[in-house]
Design a protein that fits this description.
Blueprint: H1 2-12, E1 17-18, H2 20-27, H3 31-39, E2 46-48, E3 51-55, H4 56-65
Antiparallel strand pairs: 1-3, 2-3
Helix pairs in contact: 2-3
C-alpha cells in the first residue's frame, strides 16, 4: 500500500527541482544554454547528492524576470 500512496502523491505534486535537461525543455533552451544561464547567475542550482538540480522557484523566477 505504501508504494501506491507514493505514486498518487508524486502524480499530484510537481517536482521541487529539475535536472538541467528538464529545465532546458521547460524554458525552450538546450543544455548548453542552461549551463550558460547558470554560469552567469541567471539561474541558480542546488546540490542533490552528486547532481546539480535547478529549483522550481529558480525557473519560475527566471521566467517572471523575463517579462
Amino acid at each position: 500500500m505504501g508504494k501506491r500512496r507514493n505514486e498518487k502523491i508524486s502524480k499530484k505534486m510537481p517536482p521541487f527541482a529539475y535536472s538541467i535537461g528538464r529545465a532546458g525543455f521547460m524554458l525552450g533552451r538546450g543544455k548548453t544554454s542552461v549551463h550558460h544561464l547558470i554560469s552567469t547567475g541567471a539561474l541558480w542550482t542546488v546540490a542533490v547528492g552528486n547532481r546539480r538540480m535547478i529549483p522550481r522557484s529558480a525557473v519560475e523566477g527566471f521566467i517572471a524576470s523575463a517579462r
